[in-house]
């Protein structure tokens, strides 16, 4: 692959634009500097904005023909995959992967890593084939970008390995990868909203791991961390599932009142988002513990 960062810098200088001026509306000055010096791989969202500002096509950066319309379609498909998985609609996500995206279309490392990650995620959750998922999560991690820098898909793949090993009942390995993903998440910096939202999901998946281990206090703390991330982003991504998980773990800690309140919020959000998975989970807990929302109002 060509030296993308160097090309961006050269073209910016040709347009006689300072870094700070050029970065406005795209990313921070620090992020642009890292991209230009090949210390950070730009997301497709940032890359498209850079090309727009430079008034060039993507193929001008890559030095080979690139179908801009295909890039837009791939970007839209991966956005849809994120939304579907965020609403526990992994079956639909898997169908989209199989019917709408072919590996030959994956013209950038960024797209390749996204594809392998979502393939692994749907394989473990929808198909319940953890070994196949482990293979594709590993492909995500082994597909290096030009700058050899970590991407959000790398952190998600580590988290996905935790899910896959949980399915296999190998809890020590699951714990290792959940903790590793959490450690990397805390160090990962991004200004891309779609990537920031995934940090909430990483904390959520790790919280669920501790909930399954009956370490309810750790699970509550991670749920609150994830909620803080998503609320600050004004995002409903995984929000109903988070409120449900928080309610579940608070109940296990004996806090029935706050547990019920969080179930109430979870059900309302799940209803708005048409998230049947969370609606069913809440109803099951309400029935089991004879919780009535009327008492909360």
Automatic annotation (TrEMBL):
<feature type="domain" description="HTH cro/C1-type">
    <location>
        <begin position="8"/>
        <end position="61"/>
    </location>
</feature>
<dbReference type="Pfam" id="PF13181">
    <property type="entry name" value="TPR_8"/>
</dbReference>
<dbReference type="InterPro" id="IPR011990">
    <property type="entry name" value="TPR-like_helical_dom_sf"/>
</dbReference>
<dbReference type="InterPro" id="IPR053163">
    <property type="entry name" value="HTH-type_regulator_Rgg"/>
</dbReference>
<protein>
    <submittedName>
        <fullName>Helix-turn-helix transcriptional regulator</fullName>
    </submittedName>
</protein>
<dbReference type="Pfam" id="PF01381">
    <property type="entry name" value="HTH_3"/>
</dbReference>
<dbReference type="InterPro" id="IPR001387">
    <property type="entry name" value="Cro/C1-type_HTH"/>
</dbReference>
<dbReference type="GO" id="GO:0003677">
    <property type="term" value="F:DNA binding"/>
</dbReference>
<dbReference type="InterPro" id="IPR010982">
    <property type="entry name" value="Lambda_DNA-bd_dom_sf"/>
</dbReference>
<dbReference type="InterPro" id="IPR019734">
    <property type="entry name" value="TPR_rpt"/>
</dbReference>
């Amino acid at each position: 692959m060509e030296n993308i960062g160097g090309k961006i810098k050269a073209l910016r200088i040709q347009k006689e634009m300072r870094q700070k001026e050029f970065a406005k509306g795209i990313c921070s000055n620090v992020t642009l500097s890292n991209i230009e010096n090949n210390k950070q791989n730009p997301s497709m969202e940032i890359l498209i904005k850079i090309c727009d500002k430079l008034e060039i096509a993507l193929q001008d950066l890559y030095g080979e023909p690139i179908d801009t319309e295909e890039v837009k379609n791939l970007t839209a498909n991966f956005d849809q995959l994120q939304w579907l998985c965020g609403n526990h609609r992994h079956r639909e996500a898997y169908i989209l992967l199989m019917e709408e995206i072919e590996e030959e279309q994956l013209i950038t490392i960024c797209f390749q890593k996204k594809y392998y990650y979502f393939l692994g995620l749907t394989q473990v959750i929808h198909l319940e084939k953890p070994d196949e998922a482990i293979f594709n999560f590993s492909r995500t991690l082994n597909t290096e970008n030009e700058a050899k820098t970590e991407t959000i898909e790398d952190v998600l793949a580590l988290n996905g390995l935790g899910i896959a090993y949980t399915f296999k009942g190998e809890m020590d390995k699951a714990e290792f990868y959940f903790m590793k993903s959490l450690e990397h998440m805390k160090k990962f910096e991004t200004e891309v909203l779609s990537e920031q939202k995934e940090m909430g999901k990483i904390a959520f998946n790790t919280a669920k791991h501790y909930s399954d281990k009956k370490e309810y206090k750790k699970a509550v703390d991670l749920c609150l961390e994830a909620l803080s991330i998503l609320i600050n982003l004004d995002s409903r991504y995984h929000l109903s599932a988070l409120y449900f998980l928080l309610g579940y773990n608070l109940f296990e800690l004996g806090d029935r009142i706050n547990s019920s309140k969080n179930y109430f919020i979870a059900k309302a959000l799940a209803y708005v988002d048409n998230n049947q998975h969370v609606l069913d989970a809440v109803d099951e807990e309400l029935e089991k513990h004879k919780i009535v929302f009327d008492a909360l109002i």
